[in-house]
From TrEMBL:
It comes from the Bacteria. This is DUF4313 domain-containing protein. The lineage of its organism: Bacteria, Bacillati, Bacillota, Clostridia, Lachnospirales. Pfam families: DUF4313. InterPro entries: DUF4313.
C-alpha cells in the first residue's frame, strides 16, 4: 500500500509508465517503492510536462532526426 493510493503500482505497470526496481524507501510510517519511469511513454502522454521537467533538471534533449529515404 502506497500511502493513500493503494492501486498506484498496478496503474503504473498496467499503463507501461514504469518498472519496479525491487527497492523501497521508508518515510515515516510508509514504505515507498522505487520505479524507473518510461520516459518515452511520459513524453508521449505529456510532452510539455516532460520538456519542463527536463529544463528544470538542466537536461537538454537532442532534437529527433528522422532517416531520409528515397
Amino acid at each position: 500500500n502506497v500511502n493513500d493510493m493503494p492501486d498506484i503500482e498496478k496503474f503504473i505497470t498496467d499503463n507501461d509508465l514504469g518498472e519496479f526496481t525491487g527497492f523501497t524507501q521508508r518515510s515515516g510510517f510508509c514504505e515507498y517503492p522505487l520505479y524507473l519511469f518510461n520516459v518515452d511513454k511520459l513524453r508521449e502522454l505529456c510532452p510539455d510536462g516532460m520538456d519542463k521537467y527536463e529544463a528544470n533538471i538542466g537536461m537538454t534533449r537532442k532534437p529527433e532526426t528522422k532517416d531520409l529515404s528515397r
